[in-house]
Design a protein that fits this description.
Shape: globular
Mean pLDDT: 93
Radius of gyration: 19 Å
Number of helices: 13
Strand content: 15-25%
CATH architecture of the largest domain: Alpha-Beta Barrel
CATH superfamily of the largest domain: Aldolase class I
Order of helices and strands: HEHEHEEHEEHEHEHEHEHEHEHHH
Number of strands: 12
Largest sheet: 8 strands, parallel, barrel
CATH topology of the largest domain: TIM Barrel
Helix content: 40-55%
Structural class: alpha/beta
Number of domains: 2
């Protein structure tokens, strides 16, 4: 059971990207990382993406102790935003295309966003010298979408509650609880609330839940882990420590800027998460294999990708196991 992985601190979650609607890439990611020992997969809340993840598990031939989580968010949460390029402002300088880590910018008559590949990282918007790029939330009707996903056999729903709108958070959380009686995850960081209000919000959200039926995803800086540096993971560790010290009846998972240093540095800081979730960095280290059209027909390439991914998974889990 998923709960057992958290209890035993042997859970590694691959973040495929809450906004990643590229079914082929998701299937490749899940295939490679499942073979590498990853046992928890976070994917976009779309039926076709859940299907792609399940194909990846089947292709890997390791479906036992492999679990799928879908991510949903609220207005303003960076995980569910997409970049929009204003064609009247775009000067076709190319800076957005050069900086995009997800190859989501395509060049036609002017630059445009390939929405299925945009993960909402905001790097293009920050780099644009002409203020031509904005970020737009991709909202969904939970009552319409979640029952379809639940029917496919998902194991967890992750709610991105990064917002200062308490009413919206409460309403969406209540909605999710009514629709799904399995494991839930609260993804939250310190960008909108101070520590006191952050703890108060999570305590309130947990009050309606059975003890240890919920995961707190302690986010650092979302989608910032492209570079394997200790500095990028500090915020995730600090957020995890905040909830660890609060002694809440929930499992703690570190995410946001996580990389090869995360669990080792957490251990040195006296922070002991039940799980680590890695996204940007985990995808980056096998990017060249994800770009191969014939990957599934190339056993050597698959083996090479698995070897790279396995080192990240095993290193991360080893540091948690030795707590």
């Amino acid at each position: 059971m998923l709960k057992d992985l958290f209890e035993e601190k042997r859970c590694f979650k691959l973040v495929c990207g809450a906004g990643n609607e590229d079914a082929i890439e998701v299937e490749k990611l899940v295939t490679i990382y499942s073979k590498a020992g990853c046992n928890f997969f976070d994917v976009c809340a779309k039926p076709e993406i859940v299907d792609a993840a399940k194909r990846g598990l089947k292709r890997a031939g390791i479906e036992k102790e492999r679990y799928i989580c879908v991510s949903v968010g609220i207005d303003g949460d960076p995980h569910i935003t997409k970049a929009i390029i204003d064609q009247n402002k775009c000067k076709k300088c190319g800076k957005c295309k050069l900086i995009c880590p997800h190859d989501a910018i395509i060049e036609l008559d002017k630059y445009k966003v390939k929405k299925v590949r945009c993960l909402g990282c905001t790097q293009c918007a920050n780099a644009c010298p002409h203020d031509a790029i904005s970020m737009e939330s991709q909202l969904m009707d939970y009552n319409d979408v979640l029952p379809k996903l639940i029917a496919k056999g998902i194991d967890c729903i992750e709610f991105h509650a990064i917002s200062d709108d308490e009413i919206d958070v409460n309403e969406k959380w209540e909605q999710i609880n009514k629709l799904f009686d399995g494991m839930l995850c609260i993804s939250i960081d310190r960008s909108e609330l101070g520590d006191k209000k952050l703890k108060e919000r999570v305590k309130r959200m947990l009050s309606s839940r059975i003890p240890f039926s919920t995961i707190i995803q302690a986010d650092g800086i979302a989608m910032s882990g492209n570079n394997d540096e200790m500095g990028t993971t500090l915020q995730a560790i600090a957020t995890a420590q905040l909830f660890q010290d609060a002694k809440l009846p929930a499992y703690i998972m570190m995410s946001g800027g996580t990389n090869t240093h995360s669990t080792k540095l957490a251990k040195l800081c006296g922070v002991h998460p039940h799980c680590v979730a890695i996204g940007s960095f985990a995808r980056k280290i096998i990017k060249k294999y994800l770009e191969m059209e014939n990957l599934f027909e190339d056993k050597n390439a698959i083996d090479e990708a698995v070897k790279i991914a396995k080192e990240l998974v095993e290193t991360s889990l080893e540091n948690m196991k030795n707590d």
